[in-house]
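Here is this case:
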Amino acid sequence: MYFSSSPEILLTSSPNGVITAYDTISGTLLARFSGSRSPAHGLALVGKSYIAASHISLTTACGSIHLYNWWSSSALHHIPLPEPVAPLAATPDASYLFAGGLSGHLYALSIPSGNILTSFPAHKKPLSCLLISTDSSLLISGGDDGFIVTMPIYPLVESSGSGSGSGSGSGSGTNTFVLHSFVAHKGPVTAITSCMGWICFPIIASCSTDCTCKLWSLLDGTNLHTVTFPCPVSGIVFGQTEETFYGAGSDGVIYKGCFQKRSRLEVWTEKHGGPVVSVAVVNGGKNLVSASEDGSVYVWEIERGRVNMVLGNNNNMEGISDVAVAKGIGDGKLGKGVEMNGFSVGLSEKEVRSRPIKVAVEIEDVWRVAANDRRKAIDMLESAIGVYERLLKLILKDATKGAEQSNM
C-alpha cells in the first residue's frame, strides 16, 4: 500500500474526460477523476477541499463546472452556466470561483453552491486565462482580444446581479468592476502569471499567440520588457529567482530565458510530439513539469535541462488541456488521511464524511437567508427611522405654527 510523503500533487486535465493525479517525486499515478471534458486552463484547485474543472458537453455543447473532492473519482456537484467556460481561478480560502466564458463574460460564483454572484462582459472575445494576484485582492483576465483586465475581487463577490455602468472598460466597453485594462498583445493572450516576490511593485508576465512574452507593471499597465519567441507561447512560469522563466512553445519545445538580462533564449533539446500547453515548477524549484496536447507529461531536471521522468502512458493519446499543482494535500499536515488508490490525501475520513457537499451548500444557503433577513431588518429599521423623522418634522412644524399664532 502506497502513501505519499510528497507535499505536491500534479493534476492534469484532458478534453477527453479524465483528470489524473500524480506524485511529483516518484511519478506514481495516484488517482483518476472522470467525467470532465476540460478545455485549456479549465482546471483549478479550490483551496484544499475541491478540484474544479470546466466541462463542455459533447452532445449539447452546453457549459458547466464540475466540482470534485479528493476521495471521490466522480464529480460531486455539477454547476450549470449560461454558456461554455474555459479558464478558472479560485480564491485561496475556497469561497469563490471565477470562470471565463466564450462570449467574453466573466462569472463570479460562490462555492460550494455554485450560485452566480456576478456576471459581466470583461472582453469582446473569448476570455482565455485568469489569475488571482499574490495578495488575493485582484482578479486579472486575458482574452482573445489581446486585452489584459484587472478587477478588484471584493466588488465582484459582494455585488448582486449583472455588472454595468460607467468606468474604465476593457475592449468590451465600460464596466464599474474594471479597475484597469490595456492592450497587451496583437494576438490572443494565452497565459498570465505573477511574480511572487514583487509584492510592493506588482508585476505580471503574459504570453500570446503573437510569439511574445511580456513583463507588465500592474500599477499602470506599463510594458517593462518583451521577449520574442520563434513560435506562439501557451504558458510561462518563473524559476526560484524570478529572473529566469520557462516558456511552453507550440513547437513542443521548452524555452528558458531571463527578463533581467537581454540574453538569448535557451532551447532544451528534448521536445514533445505536440504543442506544450502548460508548464509548472515543482519540488522546491528542482523540477519543471511540461504537458503537451499529444498527452505526454515530462518532469525535467531544471539544473541540467533534461527529462528525468515521463508520467503516464503516452500511447493513450488522451491529450492534455491543463495542469495544476496541489500543495499541502498529502504531506501529513492535515492529519491522518483518506486513502484513494492507496494515496493519503490528508483529510481524516471522519472530517470528510462529516462535510458532504450537500450539507455545505445547505449551510451556505442558511447563511444567505440570514444575511437577507438582516438586510431586510436594516431596511425596515431605516424606513421606521425615516417615518419617525418625518413625523417629528410635522410635529415641529405644527408647534412652530401654533406659537406664531399665539404671538399675534
In short: The longest helix spans residues 357-407. The mean pLDDT is 81. The radius of gyration is 25 Å. The longest strand covers residues 29-36.
